[in-house]
Amino acid sequence: NAGVMQNPRHLVRRRGQEARLRCSPMKGHSHVYWYRQLPEEGLKFMVYLQKENIIDESGMPKERFSAEFPKEGPSILRIQQVVRGDSAAYFCASSPRGHEQYFGPGTRLTVT
Amino acid sequence: AQSVTQLDSQVPVFEEAPVELRCNYSSSVSVYLFWYVQYPNQGLQLLLKYLSGSTLVESINGFEAEFNKSQTSFHLRKPSVHISDTAEYFCAVSSGGGADGLTFGKGTHLIIQP
Predict the structure, then answer these.
(1) Of A31, A33, A42, Cβ closest to residue B105
(2) CB-CB under 8 Å, A31 with B102
(3) Contacts of A46 in chain B (CB under 8 A)
(4) What are phi and psi of B66, to 5 degrees?
(5) Which residues of chain B are within 8 Å of residue A41 when distances are taken between CB atoms?
(6) Per-residue confidence at B96, pLDDT binned at 50, 70, 90?
(7) B87: which residues sit within 8 A by CB, 6+ positions away?
(8) Helices H, strands E: what count in chain A?
(9) Mean pLDDT, chain B, integer
(10) Distance from CA of A19 to the nearest CA of B (A)
């Protein structure tokens, strides 16, 4: 059973460009979570999705950030008009029914 | 609102010595508790979890943690550490039935000295 997959693993964007981060949950998992890890900080929850629904986006910045989990295909975290402060590691986690979450390897975003 | 405090940002320990990484949480509702381990440039791996039942939970590689409701703690322990245990350890809590996003502590860097 393959684990949570994220791509790309590393992403470099110039200020003002768009970043798209993809997450494929583990087989059979219908809950997806996104987290951001800034240097010297722990992980911060961003958004919780189930298929075609955003359940909780209380941790998402109000502007430029969006997430989706379509009926078919991976979950996407989209950051528009990136700024240097968006540089971080972004982790996706999946869960079969809530409770324990299994994390992917992360996407390290660098904004130049 | 819930929060997690990991009191030690860094814990140096000699190889084969015991270690305890401290974790305290605050929450007004029932909680589920987790320890994750992160090796350099990797994602987080679930180390162990408390959902219900026995307050002492164990992992396959010798770690254990005890849920103490009265002290709102979930400290992680290992009786004898190895070089390979060098990593960042994160304590996390969820509530609301367990399906919501996790709240993490800031992490403890465990450094094993030969």
Answers:
(1) A42
(2) no
(3) 101
(4) -120, 125
(5) 106
(6) low
(7) B37, B38, B39, B40, B109, B110
(8) 0, 11
(9) 91
(10) 20
Using the CB atoms, write b or e for B67-97: b if 16+ within 10 Å. Answer: beeeebbbbbebeebeeebbbbbbbbbbbee
- Mark yes or no for CB contact B43/A4 under 8 Å: yes
Q: Do B101 and A59 touch (CB under 8 A)?
A: yes
Of B32, B42, B100, the CB nearest to A56: B100
- Inform me whether the C-beta atom of residue B53 falls under 8 Å from chain A C-beta atoms: no
What's the average model confidence in pLDDT over B78-105? 89
- State how far the alpha carbon of A20 is from the alpha carbons of A8, B16, B107, in Å: 9, 44, 27
Quick: pLDDT tens for A32-84.
999 999 877 779 999 999 988 999 999 999 999 999 999 889 999 999 999 99
pLDDT, average across residues B14-27: 95
Residues of chain A with pLDDT > 70, as a percent, come to 98
HEC string for chain B: CCEEECCCCEEEEECCCCEEECCEEECCCCCEEEEEEECCCCCEEEEEEECCCCCEEECCCCCEEEEECCCCEEEEEECCCCHHHCEEEEEEEECCCCCCCCEECCCEEEEEEC
Beta bridge partners of A79: A19, A65
Which residue is listed with tokens 């990484």?
B21
